Amino acid sequence: MSQAAGDALPRSLWIYVAGLSLVWGMNWPVMKIVVAEVPPWTFRALCFLSAFAGLLGIAALRGQRLVPAGGWGRITLVGLFTASLNSIPLMLGLAQLPAGRTVVLYYTMPVWSVLLAAWLLGEPFTLRRVVGIVSGLVAVLLVALPALRGQDFPLGGVGLVLLSAMSWAIATVLQKKLPVSLPSSSYSAWVMLIGGIPVYLLVPLLEADRLATLGAVSAAAVGGVLYNMFAVFILGWWIWMRIVERAPAGVAALSSLATPVVGVTGGMLLLGERPSWTDYAALAAVTLAMASVTLPTGRGRRTGA
C-alpha cells in the first residue's frame, strides 16, 4: 500500500468500508432483538464458533495456509481483546442502552485506536487525526449528556460500552504491533476461536437453565442469530481484517465511523427509536471524524492499495 502521508484511506478500500458499515451498522438493532430472547453468552459463543468455521473454510477454499507456524501467544492476546474482552462489557451495556446510543458510543473506539497507534506504533499524530479524536470525544459527551443529568439511562451502561470500545482499539493496534504470518481469513478464524474461550465458559456457568428454552424463540430472533453468524462474523470480520491489513491502524479505525449512522437509522426503522438532538449532534461528530480520514488530501500523490 502506498499513500500520501499515511493519513487517508486508500480509494481501493472504500467499497470495503461501505459494505462493512452496512453489515455491521444494521446489526445493532438486530442484536437488541436477539438478546431480548436468546441468552447473550450463548448467542455470542455461536457467533465466535461460526466465525472460526466460516473463515477457516474461506481460507481452505482459497488454498491458503490454515495454521500458523508460531505466534500462538500473539493470536491469543489479540483474540482476548477482540472477542471476550470486547463482547462481555458490550453485551452488558447493550442491555441498558438504546441501540442507537450504544453504536455511537462504541464507535468512539477509533479515538482510542489513534492515540494507541501514535504511542505504540509511532504513527503520525497529524491534524486530520486530531480532528477525528476531538470529534469522537464530542460524540461521547453528547451521548452521555442525558445520563450525566440522570435522565434516560444509567451512566454505568455508558462506561461498559466505552470499555468495550477500548478493548476493540487495543486489539486493532496489537494486530499491527504483533503481526503473525498467516492469511487474514485463517488469522481471524483462530482469533475468534481462542479469544472466545472465556465466553464459552460463561454458557454452562450462567445459562445452562435457559438453554432448554431456545426452541421457543421467535423467527425474528433466529434470523438475527443467523445474520450475526454469517453476515457479521464471517463476511464482516473478513472485510475488517482486509482493511486493517492494508491501512494504518489509526486510519482503519477512523474509517469505520460510518457504521453508527447506519446503526442509528436501523434503530429507528426496526425498533422505533427516536433519537434526541444530542444523538443527531453526536452522529454529525462521528461523520466529521470519518471525513477526516476518507476525504482525499488534494495533493494527488496517493495511489491505490
How is the topology of this model organized?
Layout: H1 14-25, H2 27-35, H3 40-61, H4 72-82, H5 84-94, H6 99-106, H7 109-121, H8 127-148, H9 155-177, H10 184-195, H11 197-206, H12 219-246, H13 249-255, H14 259-271, H15 277-294
Structural write-up:
The structure is a single chain. By secondary structure, the chain is mainly alpha-helical. The protein has one domain. The protein contains 15 helices and no strands. The protein has helices at 14-25, 27-35, 40-61, 72-82, 84-94, 99-106, 109-121, 127-148, 155-177, 184-195, 197-206, 219-246, 249-255, 259-271, 277-294. It is globular. Mean pLDDT is 82; it is low at 1-5 and 299-305.
In short:
This protein has 305 residues and is mainly α. The chain has 15 helices and no strands. It has one domain (14-294).
For the termini, the CA-CA separation is: 4 Å
Task: Using the alpha-carbon principal axes, give the shape.
Answer: globular
Instruction: Spell the H/E element sequence.
Output: HHHHHHHHHHHHHHH
Oligomer: single chain
Helix proportion range: over 70%
Give the strand content. Answer: under 5%
Note the main sheet: none
Q: Could you say which structural class the secondary elements and strand pairing correspond to?
A: mainly alpha
- Low-confidence spans: pLDDT under 50, at least 5 residues? 1-5, 299-305
Radius of gyration: 19 Å
Tally the structural domains.
1
What's the total helix number? 15
Mean pLDDT: 82
The total beta strand count reads 0
